[in-house]
Design a protein that fits this description.
The protein has 174 residues and is an alpha/beta fold. The protein has 5 helices and 5 strands; from the N terminus they run βαβαβαβαβα. The longest helix has 17 residues.
Length: 174
């Protein structure tokens, strides 16, 4: 049996974005992120992050630096009692200086590849899942993967979107 999950964008959704986030010293949760993640965690809803990391392809930071940032993010979540199941990333960018990362791919949002890969790996029902992000490309990736898509805007907040996601997932599982 497959289950629903919540997929989050990373930058300016869960983590404040000061521009190509890879420095641990720059790590800071977005307002409401911990509360939203705790709500999902207490409901036993798997939490994933799907993040474009074109700064790798642009040569602005390394794969190792991004992994260290993600390890720190997951450790900070664990200290709050939250388990992030997995993080998928896309290193591609149309302006990449690394030739193989300048090629079109199926993982860079708005394409759904990261969500599809996570869903297959973890036996997630995309039709019973929700993508939460701040950009149109996040919404498009979620919709193209068959998920419900919720956008973080100045008129919404993460705990509110988490509550909506819980209702969507519960309804789909009923």
């Amino acid at each position: 049996m497959t289950i629903g999950a919540v997929f989050f964008d990373r930058d300016d959704t869960l983590v404040k974005d000061t521009g190509y986030m890879y420095k641990i010293a720059d790590f800071q949760w977005m307002d409401g992120a911990i509360s939203a993640l705790l709500r999902l965690h207490t409901e036993n809803i798997p939490i994933f992050i799907a993040t474009n990391q074109g700064g790798i392809g642009k040569g602005l930071f390394t794969l190792a630096q991004m992994h260290a940032f993600h390890d720190h993010l997951q450790e900070q979540a664990r200290t709050e009692g939250i388990q992030i199941t997995d993080i998928a990333f896309c290193p591609h960018h149309p302006e990449a200086v690394i030739a193989e990362l300048a090629q079109p791919c199926s993982c860079r949002k708005p394409e759904p590849g990261m969500l599809e890969t996570l869903a297959q790996k973890w036996q997630i029902d995309l039709g019973a899942s929700v993508m939460i992000g701040d950009k149109l490309s996040d919404m498009q990736a979620g919709e193209r993967a068959g998920c419900h898509a919720l956008q973080l805007t100045t008129d919404t907040n993460l705990p509110e979107l988490a509550d909506i996601a819980i209702k969507i997932i519960r309804k789909a599982s009923a």
